[in-house]
Design brief:
238 residues, alpha+beta, 434 Repressor (Amino-terminal Domain), Jelly Rolls, 2 domains, six-stranded antiparallel beta sheet, 22% helix
Length: 238
């Protein structure tokens, strides 16, 4: 039986083709190709075997793995079904088998206030995307000031153990075990544990979406004045 690594690229995958000049891979093509090759190798499937299982030609699979072609959604769906993974597995750098185990004993915690507050990220070590998920622990009688986020950022918090008092500006809301609250995280806010035992909560942070126009660099004053000076003037009304 071939080893999984030997199956990442079949020796005859590019037979009969001329050598290609090394070119930088497009990020998307490379990511899809690497994930497909790895998933196929883990299942010890040859290109021919995957072609038969998915209904996608061997030539197309070879092109995808070598980042020479970006497959259509229809093709990806066929390959994903054959490999028994989600289509999203081809676009991830983590959880590419559809799940990723995060053992509690190996997880990292961000601890502050001399250990009276901690936050454990419940997502892989890779940089979080549009959503963050944390487990919070707040010591008895401790108040932790929240970090103000970009406008449009929303926090959904649910108390799993104990009680918490959430303050947003000058408004306060007491939460018992099982209670939840949603608030805008660009405002001043804090968490206070009024009880005599540790409180625990889960926090989901939904990051603000940045409109494309916000990514356009602003003109400096000199360039803006020159632009206004060079702009054609409309003729005065007769």
């Amino acid at each position: 039986m071939h080893s999984p690594l030997a199956l990442v690229r079949d020796a005859t995958a590019d037979a009969g083709t001329a050598p290609r000049v090394a070119e930088p891979f497009d990020a998307l093509e490379h990511l899809v190709g690497v994930n497909l090759a790895r998933l196929r190798a883990e299942r010890q499937l040859s290109l021919d075997a995957l072609a038969r299982a998915s209904g996608v030609s061997r030539a197309m699979l070879a092109q995808i793995e070598s980042a020479r072609s970006v497959p259509s959604i229809k093709v990806l769906c066929k390959v994903a079904a054959a490999l028994k993974v989600s289509v999203a597995a081809f676009l991830r750098r983590h959880a590419t088998n559809g799940f990723e185990h995060l053992p509690a004993e190996r997880s990292s915690r961000v601890v502050s206030s001399n250990g009276r507050y901690s936050a454990r990220p419940l997502y892989p070590d890779a940089e979080p995307g549009a959503i963050e998920f944390h487990e919070l622990r707040i010591a008895a009688l401790h108040t932790e000031a929240g970090t103000r986020r970009a406008p449009g950022t929303t926090v959904n918090l649910v108390v799993s153990e104990g009680t918490l008092e959430v303050s947003v500006h000058d408004q306060r809301q007491l939460l018992a075990t099982g209670d939840a609250i949603v608030f805008d995280a660009d405002q001043p806010h804090s968490l206070r544990n009024p009880g005599d035992t540790e409180a625990r909560a889960f926090r989901v942070t939904l990051k603000a979406e940045t409109p494309p126009r916000w990514d356009v660099p602003a003109l400096n004053e000199t360039a803006e004045r020159e632009t206004l000076r060079e702009a054609p003037r409309e003729p005065a009304p007769v």
